[in-house]
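ok here's the first one, seq then struct tokens
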Amino acid sequence: MNAFSSPSYSISFNPVSGLVALVYFAGLWWVRGQTVGMIPFNLRIRRAVDGQPIGPGRAIGRFFGLALSFFVFAIGVIWVAADGRKQGWHDKLAGTVVVRPSG
């Protein structure tokens, strides 16, 4: 690389890392209602309608919604700052909300 060249970047999808991410996020959202990063903040994923834990289908839908939210220049994730219920696009698509249970 000389002084006038710039590094090139490419965006690619690796199916193995995609599957690992799906299992990690959707699996933990379904089984625990939270990922490891949510534990210190006592945050949980719940159904927006009734506050109940989410099932596997909703967890998988939320994962793909999160991927879409990041794919569109992360606007779907930034949306949380402007939304009244603090829902990103992925939450709206999956019918979920992030809550901090009392107690």
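and now the second one, same deal
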Amino acid sequence: MIMDLLKDDLIIENLVATDKMGVIREFAGYLKAQRRIENENDLVRVLIERESLGSTGIGDGVAIPHGRLHNIQEIIVAFGRSARGVEYQALDAKPVFLFFLLIGNCCLGSG
């Protein structure tokens, strides 16, 4: 389960971002500060590339931004909550309040 992978230090109780790009940048900066990733720009790029395929805002106030990075040792799961909601181009066109960020290693399991 996703909650089994979520670590207490990867919870942002009150996201300050007000738009999709801001949420992505806030998560990237937070993961860098927590020493879970080396380069926040790499994560921003990966998440934006994924969003270009279609919004990860799945509706009912939830988004699951995700992607794959080099140089991580384990799956990263982070959670963020926005009290006011964020325009995230969700499938139901409603604001997103709960964000579950999933990052996997692009090479995990190979050789």
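notes on #2: The longest strand covers residues 76-86. The chain has one domain: 2-105.
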